[in-house]
Amino acid sequence: MRIIVSLWILLPPAIQAVLLVLLVRRRLFRREMYPFFVLYTFYSVIVVIPRVILAHNPAVYPALYWDTEIIYGVLALFALDEVFRKVFAFDYRKKRWMRCLFPVTILVISTGLFLWWRFIYKTPNHEHLTLIAAAIVAFGQGVHSIECILFVLFMLLWAALGSKWRSYDYGILLGFGLSGLITMTADMVRFKTGSGYELWSTHAPGAVYVLACAIWLHGFWENYQPTPMSLEELRARFEQAKGSNQAIKMIHDWLHRKD
After folding, report:
1. Nearest to 79, CA basis, from 229, 220, 227
2. What is the distance between the alpha carbons of residues 54 and 66, in angstroms, rounded to a whole number?
3. Distance from the Cα of residue 62 to its chain's centroid
4. Considering only 38-42, 149-153, 252-256, which range has the smallest mean pLDDT?
5. What is the rounded CA–CA span in Å between residue 105 and residue 95?
6. pLDDT tens, 57-92?
7. Whole-prediction pTM
8. Which residue from 15, 115, 184, 256 has the least number of CB within 10 angstroms?
9. How many CB atoms lie within 10 A of CB 97?
10. Using an 8 Å Cβ cutoff, are 9 and 205 in contact?
């Protein structure tokens, strides 16, 4: 059993260390690329060090684990948001409300989960969770819920776009989506059935995270080459730029730089 636990702890950062080398070599940490996913990957590699060192210290490890999980969740949300912005780039420029869609969805889901864990759910001792415990659990499950929602959205877009889907975006969303889906399922099984499926609910999230890391590595293994823009896409982008006066602004800025 200890060998299995060690595998789930050490295998993901080992895969992500190779992935981090690829991300840095291709300079994908630049602002217009995937800076938060690079930061998430870097954090995933280094956070295993204190976790392994303090794994057998019951007085410290639980607090360390939940604190690092919160950071995991925050970085995952930023990584998902940057992919969301790339997929809906034109909508972000044309419709200001699209910029609020992602954070508002996170807030609504997390608030609903918090109310459930704080005021409705009861422990086996018939007690409600404390304020801090309910907030931590709600935030974690809120992140996994967003991952599941984007996974479903990804499947719909994959069916619509097919080979036109960007390979990097594909890998990021698929990895997070599968991880969130299995983790949420494991949580529901554990709370609904008690200890009957404890082994499955404990190890399934770790196993699927290994799969997610492998998906990310596979997705970034080949250097992404953007496909040439078709004439129809060029015309559509020009019309959008012209309609919002972006073309005029670009010419104006260019003339000022020439001066």
Report:
1. 220
2. 13
3. 23
4. 252-256
5. 17
6. 888 888 898 889 899 999 999 998 888 877 766 555
7. 0.76
8. 256
9. 8
10. no
Residues composing the chain: 259
Work out the average pLDDT over 223-242: 55
Sign of CA dihedral 134, 140, 146, 152: negative
Which range in 70-84, 101-115, 158-172, 217-231 is most confidently predicted, on average pLDDT?
70-84
Q: Which residues contact 176 (CB under 8 A, 6 or more apart)?
A: 76, 79, 80, 147, 150, 151, 212
Position 51 pLDDT exceeds 80: yes
pLDDT tops 50 at residue 258:
no
Distance, in Å, from the CA atom of 129 to the CA atom of 126, rounded to the nearest integer, reads 10
| 3-class DSSP string for the chain | CHHHHHHHHHHHHHHHHHHHHHHHHCCCCCCCCCHHHHHHHHHHHHCHHHHHHCCCCCCCHHHHHHHHHHHHHHHHHHHHHHHHHHHCHHHHHHCCCHHHHHHHHHHHHHHHHHHHHHHHCCCCCCCCCCHHHHHHHHHHHHHHHHHHHHHHHHHHHHHHHHHHCCHHHHHHHHHHHHHHHHHHHHHHHHHHHHHHHHHHHHHHHHHHHHHHHHHHHHHHHCCCCCCCCCHHHHHHHHHHHHHCCHHHHHHHHHHHHHC
Category of 245 on φ-ψ map: left (φ > 0), alpha (ψ -120 to 50) or beta: left
